[in-house]
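Hey, resending since the last one bounced:
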Amino acid sequence: MRQPFKCPECNTKFLSGDSTKQITCPGCSYSGARDSFILLTKKQRVCASCNYKWDEYFPADSEIPSDFTCPKCKTSTESTVLNVEVATKTGYLELTNDGEGKWVGAKNVFELSTGVQTLGREANPPKADILLPTTDGYIGRCHIKIEVKETSNGRIKHLLADCNSVNGTYINGIKLNKGEVIVLTNNDEIKIGHTTFTFHC
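The structure tokens again:
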């Protein structure tokens, strides 16, 4: 998977492949180890004045500011929406990578329901609400938690967190920090162990 980076020399933003150990900036040709570049995360904003939507990139390990100036109508505001594609119905997870052939069940779509549900590898006794039929040992028996709740305006939010798993959880190629909770948006990619799901709402 390609990830967004920013060059520490000229601030050019670009995509680079996961496995690349040495990166060369396409803007200034600066070359260095992956760790010398700034890893970015993409978030979507929407202007409350004109409803214009656009993507912005932020350092993955920093707090995302709420204030912005709309690039279309130039309105400055401290009111923004990140990940604007909030659902109007409960979503579901679809298996998109079987963990290198570790998937052993026929079911590959998992409906989410209102409330809190945990997901993890099938075990005896079971440790999660939604059991995943896989032999992917890098998936914990209780790996992630998704809370589905209705907001005051009738929208549905899907909040995902890692359940202190050994191997962590990746959203769109970026690892969640301990205790971090993110709002899922349509087509988000969730990777646990060697197995990948796409969230739909």
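Confidence is low (pLDDT under 50) at residues 79-85.

Sorry for the duplicate.
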